[in-house]
Amino acid sequence: MKKLNVLIWVLLLVFTNLFAQQEKGIIGTTNWLNNWTDFQPNKQYHREPTQIISGNITSDTKLFKRDTYLLMGSVFVTNQANLYIEPGTVILGDYDSKASLTISRGSKIIAEGTETDPIIFSSNRSVKKAGDWGGVIVLGDAPLNRFGNGSVANFHTQLSPENYVNTNYGGNNTEDSSGVLKYVRIEYSGKRIKGAGYFNGLLLAGIGSKTVLDNIMVSYSAGDAFEIWGGDITLNQAVSYRASINDFKFNHGTQCMLNNSLAIRSPYISSSDGSRCLKVLSYDRKEDVDFSKKSTLVVAKNITVLNDSESLKEDIENGLIKEGVFIGENAFLDMNKSVISGFNPAVILDDRISINQSNLEKVKFTDMYFNNCNGNIFVLNNGNNDDLENWYGNSAFFNVYSKSENIETFIDIENKRRPDYRLRINKIIAINKPDVDE
To answer: Its domain of life (predicted)?
Structure first.
């Protein structure tokens, strides 16, 4: 009887431990990446275009799976029109004309793919590379924290005068709807524009809370994968894969719930001027900000951010790996039940942030799993992080720290076609306190 009781307690302990581990990082009873994602888009063949999309779309329009569409130049959906895209539809961005699709304020995109039939935006080149075409821009009527509203006119070369109004975003409607993006892939975007930097895979500017944003994958973007300016959004099961700059960038008073999402970085692709999985800012310049409005607030739950390095130590020594998360001055981040694995270090705070209780309460890391990082949380240009490690290492935050290799940490990271980035069951050895001597 005594042996039976001991066995029961051991089984309960193992079950509880497994459950706790499964709670961190991306979660799901099955691998929700299956079917709709593609981690090898260069091996996909798309039919030759049968339809051309150019100019302005000014009335309700539907794109069909039976056709393949070529997006040419700067295409705007305007005049409160709705653009409907059928599941399985393929839209190819034209390389030569720097193609992009902009959903103007007041209009909507209804791109509702399915798990087995996602909607695909990709490049029209036979040999595809990051930055082949522009990307997708969605503009809404929700608030920003800056004086006045914003414009994306600088992304569009040779913009006709009548289209300047279609580049504006921002307003007062937090519940604004710009439509639906669900089971959508955006590949090889991020075209470089002279004097304006790079397009993003998906730019959401002034987007309201009634916009549906679920199961979106941006892969091989030469710019940021997801960039969010202002607005009030919930982003579920988003995937950024091998972006050249940032995976998720937030700015200008964004209010965002980021749930069950994934960012996979490559040290051999990242930009030399700093590429992060999460970059959380409230502004670029203080003089542009109306401080009576909300600062950027990102609540990130069940996020996995991973540096997919074959030799982490060597890549760090060669300067190829930077921090995973960057938080700017007057920005709020609440990150919970998430995994940060393989960075140098895990987190950097802007050096304009004074280390005091008031500021540290703006940046929360709770129930986290910091794995295989060369240091955990630092202030920019300051090598002494004892105060930060003592704060975030407090047992009340339930953060754990580990030095496990990626192959030991995640269920099936080596499966090129259908990887599984959920935490591997019962293979994690963690400690409750960080190594302050790193």
So the answer is: Bacteria
